[in-house]
Amino acid sequence: MARSSALPVPGLRRGWWLREALAAEGTPLPAPPLTEDLAADVAIIGGGYTGMWTAWFLTETVPGIRIVLLEADICGGGPSGRNGGFVHGWWEQTPFLARQFGEQAARDMAWAADEVVDGIGQWSADHGVDGWFHKSGYLTINAFPNEPNSWTGTVAEMERMGLGEQLQPMSADDVQQRCASPVYGEGLWMPSAASIQPARLARGMRRVLLERGVRIHEHSPVFRMEPGAPCKLVTDRATVTAEQVVLAVNAWATGWPGFRTRLLAWGSYMVMTEPIPERLAEIGWTGNELLSDSRFTISYYRTTDDGRIAFGAGVGAAGFDGRIGRVFEADGNAVARVSANFRRLLPMLADVRLVDAWGGPIDITAMRFPEIGSRHGGRVHYAHGFAGNGAGPARLAGRILAVLVAGTDDPLGRLAIVNHRQRFLPPEPFRYIGARLIREALIRGDNASDAGRRAPWWVRLVARVPTWLGYRLSH
Ligand SMILES: Cc1cc2nc3c(=O)[nH]c(=O)nc-3n(C[C@H](O)[C@H](O)[C@H](O)COP(=O)(O)OP(=O)(O)OC[C@H]3O[C@@H](n4cnc5c(N)ncnc54)[C@H](O)[C@@H]3O)c2cc1C
Question: What is the separation of C-alpha 38 from the centre of its chain, rounded to a whole number of angstroms?
């Protein structure tokens, strides 16, 4: 069959998920730009999952609370409406968390994060949000022909902690039963994970919050925050004064004073195929399983309810000096890399057309783990740094932020992650130059492993630099 080589151009329009969700939504409830000065108990900046979950849990715990949510674009217009829809907690992070914070603290955090999967499923069912939720499990595949898998140590550690059922080794034969591809080796199965249509969840949350009386103003970017009593948020046309502020801006925090030194943004891009339900049936991929390879620049892919494959990879460029610009939305080179990974991991689908492409920023801290906490005397609260794994954990972040705002005595507010500040990253321009070099080295290293070759010495050297400097590159 002829291979379709034309690649969709990213950045010309909103991504497929959001277009589909907006079409399914019909006429949305209004959330007009902010045009008059307002006072509120809490002002939330950012209408992604983190901001919206925070609003939701606050309405649950503090009835009657006056919440204003300001979103620069539309709710779900950022990564919350563009992501892969892989929903899981922190099981694959648990051994790292145990080393970092001790075993009991790690267990507490991992179980708290585990709640997000069933929590999102149940919440969606309760509120009539058809977010294509499937508790279908997540399979990481070793697709390097000549290398041992990367998870043996993690599995042993999880078994020792009595958590072995959360990450189960899967034989190469069983992997083929889930999705048959000639390039797959053995796998690692996380049964608790679920897939969602990410933008349907985001837009459904928006509707539920508006119905609850949360004031949402879209197309209302906050240009300045003046922390104080009260705090003041300035948009181009009006201001909001609030007793407390929640900063839920994800990768945009790379440009905020106080955070920019501890975060950097990298691009992740996705492509979408035409509907191919019969081809999925041929390869046995009919259970909605989430799949990824085990590269550093991870390829992650899943099916959709209308029989397509959504396929992404963290192969975009690094951002410079906190700017979230076109490089995160319109990088044709990144799409070419994603599509090459698609053809490599699913060679039997080489003729399938890719009909859409989009990208977005993911924000990374030194330890590839989020920062959640409070500053300015407990008046400003924040959560960011999900490192491309926030679809589920943003719900936990929202629960924690609601506890911090309400000041309730809740074990969530005492999790070890809360107010744990991460290490500084090098200043610009060294951060940008370093990130670019290291990213290129890691991609080249992955490509060499794919081809069964050893990467050149300089690639191996550069790829090791972050570890020597004490930064965590992968799980
Ligand atoms: C391509 C891609 C694929 C991904 N795949 C997955 C996945 O499969 N699984 C997973 O767990 N995670 C994934 N992620 C990461 C996940 O999408 C994020 O971690 C998650 O959406 C974070 O939610 P959030 O609400 O914190 O941030 P966002 O969704 O980014 O929301 C932040 C919002 O703040 C707004 N904002 C920023 N600055 C301002 C301002 N000054 N004033 C007003 N509003 C402002 C932005 O417009 C944005 O809407 C992926 C990310 C990308 C880009």
Answer: 32
